[in-house]
Write a structure and sequence with these properties.
Layout: H1 9-18, H2 24-31, E1 43-45, H3 47-60, E2 62-63, E3 66-67, E4 71-73, E5 95-101, E6 106-112, E7 116-122, E8 126-130, E9 133-137, E10 142-145, E11 151-155, E12 161-167, H4 169-174, E13 180-182, H5 196-200, E14 221-222, H6 224-234, E15 245-248, E16 263-269, E17 278-280, E18 284-290, E19 292-297, E20 300-305, E21 309-312, E22 318-322, E23 329-335, H7 337-342, E24 348-350, E25 362-363
Parallel strand pairs: 2-3, 20-25
Antiparallel strand pairs: 1-21, 4-5, 5-12, 6-11, 6-13, 7-10, 7-12, 8-9, 8-11, 10-14, 15-16, 16-23, 17-24, 18-21, 18-23, 19-20, 19-22
Bound molecules: fe (ii) ion (2 copies).
One fe (ii) ion binds near residues 110, 112, 116 and 151.
């Protein structure tokens, strides 16, 4: 293709575009923004809608035959245009899904460079194998599957088990760094005794002596009791004015995040709690484990109830309110704070006007089941 001389600025811009270049003088503020501009938006998915679609998938698909995993994942409307499948992004870095395993099903063994965690929502009898360890789990438990570890799951009981998955799929996709491998066996061999890692850390804030050498992912299962005990201790004290009584899941060997690329928290909002607003660079996916209330995100009210999911994107003002006068609300959340901190991007700011509370300008209307 032959080049042509540019006669005016408009023509120069067009020529640059056709020649796969760009004029920095007119693009600099789009590239170096004054403050973060999030492609993902604040959004909320209702439990009833997710479960309805998951139920339909259960009728149409068998795990192991036609589906390695039966999970419905959340696509942020702001990322819908990204190919393929919105990069599986609930936020710019994090994927979230709700997965169902019926009694007797085996989700076959595989491993991937995306790092994963699970939060058990419903059902007893779930069992997973991670890196040669059998891990049993119950509702409220938090589990990790670190990068490149073999994992498979089954359900040995007679009721369906449902959990939330969170992986750094969009982040990995952006970096083009995803490898996946399928195990030759449906279930991997067990190499240590059942619940080995949970037994090693039974004491909570004490660790086995051989942990003086740091371990990357020494604990596979964090029980609901552990999280609850942590929160109950905090409830003897004043709540955090923004997040109530909140804990984060940590690696007991290093004190860092339990999963090195995804942060995870559980927070309790006491009855009537009205949190103050703040914003930060890291993005967050919330799952309402128990209770009901609403969050105000950049002036929009998002009402939530047990089982719902919602997203607070990067640099969005947000505050959480428990509307019940008698029941606590528990929010499980995952975030990309470890990534933001690793690259020194994290900034946090408190909302100073109106005693820390935003003015509600609109109310979010979620897609509901008929
Ligand atoms: Fe997986
Ligand atoms: Fe926050």
């Amino acid at each position: 293709m032959k080049t042509r001389d540019s006669k005016n600025l408009e023509e120069l811009h067009q020529n640059l575009q056709e020649e796969n270049m760009g004029p920095l003088w007119s693009s600099i503020h789009q590239l170096n923004t004054i403050e973060p501009k999030s492609k993902p938006i604040a959004y909320l998915w209702k439990k009833e809608l997710i479960r309805k679609r998951l139920k339909e998938a259960e009728e149409l698909l068998e795990v192991g035959e036609g589906a390695d995993r039966r999970a419905v994942f959340l696509i942020n409307p702001g990322m819908k245009d990204l190919e393929p499948v919105g990069w599986g992004g609930a936020t710019q870095t994090l994927y979230a899904a709700v997965q169902a395993v019926k009694p007797g099903e085996i989700a076959p063994a595989h491993r991937h460079t995306t790092t994963a965690l699970r939060f058990i929502i419903n059902g007893h009898g779930g069992e997973g194998r991670v890196n040669g360890e059998k891990i049993t789990f119950e509702p409220g438990d938090f589990l990790i599957t670190p990068t490149w570890t073999w994992h498979d799951h089954t359900n040995i009981n007679d009721e369906e088990v449902i959990w939330m998955d969170c992986l750094d799929v969009p982040f990995t996709n952006f970096l083009s760094t995803c490898f996946t491998e399928f195990h030759e066996k449906k279930q991997q061999d067990l190499l240590v005794e059942d619940n080995f890692s949970l037994k090693r850390y039974n004491g909570g804030m004490v660790r086995p002596i051989d942990d003086r050498k740091e371990k990357i992912a020494p604990l596979g299962r964090y029980t609901w009791k552990m999280a609850k005990d942590g929160i109950e201790g905090l409830m003897e004290l004043d709540p955090n004015p923004i997040d109530g009584y909140a804990i984060e899941y940590i690696n007991p060997s290093t004190g860092k995040d339990a999963n090195d690329r995804i942060g995870s928290r559980m927070q309790c909002l006491a009855p009537g709690f009205k949190g103050k607003a703040h914003r930060h660079v890291h993005s967050t996916i919330y799952h309402v484990f128990k209770g009901e209330g609403y969050s105000v995100i950049d002036g929009e009210r998002f009402d939530w109830a047990e089982g719902d999911f919602f997203v607070v994107p990067t640099w969005a003002w947000h505050e959480h309110i428990n509307t019940s006068s008698s029941k606590e609300a528990f929010l499980f959340s995952t975030n990309d704070l470890p990534i933001m901190e690793a690259f020194d991007f994290e900034v946090e700011e408190n909302f100073k006007e109106n005693d820390g509370h935003q003015i509600i300008q609109s109310v979010f209307n979620p897609i509901k089941v008929d």
